[in-house]
Amino acid sequence: MKRQNAEHFRSVPRRILASTALIVVVVLSAPVAWGDPVILVDQRDALVDTALRIRLEGFPARQPISVIATLYAPDATWQSRAVFMSDEGGSVEVSTTAPQSGSYEGVSSMGLFWAMQPISAKPTPPSPETVMEPRRVSLQAQAPDGRQAETVLIRRWARPGVTRRVVRESGVVGTLFVPAGHGGRWPAIVVLAGSAGGANETRAALLSSHGYAALALAHFGLPGLPQGLVNIPLEYFENAIRWMRGQDWLGAGFLALIGSSRGGELALLLGATFPEINGVIAVVPSGVVHGPFGKSEPGDMRPRAAWTHGGSPLRYLQQDNRTGDPSAVVRRGEELVETPLYLAWLRDAIAVQRSSIPVERIRGPVLLISGKDDAIWPSFVMAEIARRRLEKHQHPFPFAHLAYDGAGHSILAPYGPTTTSISTLHPVNGMRYALGGSPRSNADAAADSWPRILQFLEKARGSR
User: Fold this and answer.
1) 41-73, pLDDT tens digit by residue?
2) Cα(150)–Cα(43) distance, rounded to whole angstroms?
3) How far is residue 177 CA from its own chain's centroid?
4) What is the structure's pLDDT at 184?
5) Which domains does the chain have, with CATH numbers?
6) What confidence score (pLDDT) does residue 85 get?
7) Least confident among 252-256, 279-283, 371-375, 392-396
C-alpha cells in the first residue's frame, strides 16, 4: 500500500523492531527432542501493538503445514487460517512467507492476526474493565502426517503496572490510565471519543503502556452526560484539561489530544481554542466543523449544533449549505456510503470558510492521518483543509498529514483483526455505514501510522 506524506517537518524513520533470540514457548506436553515440531515466537507476552516473529521448525520437509490462530477476546472468538509450504529443513518463517491458501494472501508479517474473523460472538458487549485483561492467542500448526505443535501467546492493551481509575469528579467523566510506578511525573494525553460516544479506553490504555497518563474522556453517551452529540459545550473539555493539569504528576508538563473521526474534528477544534494544549493528533478527521448527531436532551429548545462556546452554537458545514444533496448518499445493499454527500457539502466554498477550524492557533505540532478510501466521510479531503491552512499561515510548529491509499475510516491500533473494519452498525442511530478500505489496507495503515504517532508524541515532548 502506498502512503503519501504531505508534511512540513522531517519524516521520522520507521520503527525498527528489535531482533531478539527466538524462544520455544509450548510444544504440546512432551519434552522437546531433535526433530519434534515446534512453534518459535520472539515475544510470548507483549502489547497488542507489538509485531511478532513466528517460525515453525521440526516439520516434514516440503510439506503443506496448516496454521490456525485463535484470539479469545471478551467480545468474540476470532480465528484465521493459513497453509505454508515448509522448506527443505522442515521450517517456515511465517512472518516472511506467503501462504499457499488461507485467510490472507501474500507476505504479511502479522497476517494471522489482522485477517482473523469472528467465529463466535458474545450475547452482550464486554464491560470496560476488560481492557485490563490480557488476551490469549492460540497458535496451532499441523503437518499432513498429523505431527503438530501449539503455543499460547498473551496480548495486552495495558502493560503490567498500568492502573485504571474511573473518573467522576469535578465535572469530568472518563477513565484515567496511569503508567506503572509511583511518584513519577508523566506527560499526559486526552483521548477523545467520536460519534459513537462513550470513552475510548483501549487507546488510552495502550498509550499509558507507552508512558503517558491517558484520560479516556467521554462527552456523551454515558450516564450523567448528553445522549447525543448535540450542543456539547467546549468548556466541558476546558474543565477536563484543567483537571488533568491540576494533578500532581503533571503540573505544567506536556499535554496533548488525540481523537478519531468526530473526535479528530474535536481535537483540532479544542487545540485551536485552548492554549493549554501542546500537541494534536487527528485521525480520519475534519478540518471543518460538522453538525449535530443524535438526539437532543429533553426540553432543550436551543438551536441544534454539535458544539457550543460561550453559550453560542458553533457554525457548521451543513448550516445554510447551498450545495448539499441528500440524494448523493449511495446505498450499497444495507450500507450507506456517505462520502459523496460530504463532498457535495464541501463544494459550498462559503460554508467551508465559515466552518473551517482555525488550526493555525494550535500552540504545538499537529499530526493528521487519513484514508483515501474513507467511505463514511472524505477524511483525506478534510484533513487537507487543515493542512493547507497550517501551511498558509506558516504554522511555527511541525505538522504533517499521513494519507494512506486504499485505507478507509478504520485506522486503529495495529495488529488487531480488521476483517470487520470496512463497515459498521452505528450504535447511536442503528444505521449501517460503509467505512471503506479493505482489511489489508486498513491493517497496513494502522501498522505504519501507530509507531509514527508514538514518535510524534516523543518529538513533541522533547521540543518543549
Assistant:
1) 999 999 999 999 999 999 999 999 999 999 999
2) 15
3) 17
4) 72
5) 32-156 (2.60.40.2240), 158-462 (3.40.50.1820)
6) 98
7) 252-256
3-state secondary structure the chain: CCEEEEECCCCCCCCCCCCCCCEECCCCCCCCCCCCCEEEECCCEEECCCCCCEEEECCCCCCEEEEEEEEECCCEEEEEEEEEECCCCCCEEHHHCCCCEECCCCCCCCHHHHCCEEEEECCCCCCHHHHHCCEEEEEEEECCCCCEEEEEEEEECCCCCCEEEEEEECCEEEEEEECCCCCCCCCEEEEECCCCCCCCHHHHHHHHHCCCEEEEECCCCCCCCCCCECCEEHHHHHHHHHHHHCCCCCCCCCEEEEEECHHHHHHHHHHHHCCCCCCEEEECCCCECCCCECCCCCCCCCCCCCEEECCEECCCCCCCCCCCCHHHCEEECCEEECHHHHHHHHCCHHHHHHHECCHHHCCCCEEEEEECCECCCCHHHHHHHHHHHHHHCCCCCCEEEEEECCCCCCCCCCCCCCCCCCEEECCCCCCEEECECCHHHHHHHHHHHHHHHHHHHHHHHHCC
pTM score, whole prediction: 0.90
Of 125-139, 402-416, 443-457, the one with minimum mean pLDDT is 125-139
Residue range 95-122, pLDDT digits in tens: 999 999 999 999 999 999 999 999 987 7
Please state the rounded mean pLDDT for residues 145-152.
Answer: 97
Torsion of CA 36, 40, 45, 47, to 10 degrees: -150
pLDDT at 11 over 70: no
**Three-point CA angle 100, 103, 105, nearest 5°:** 50
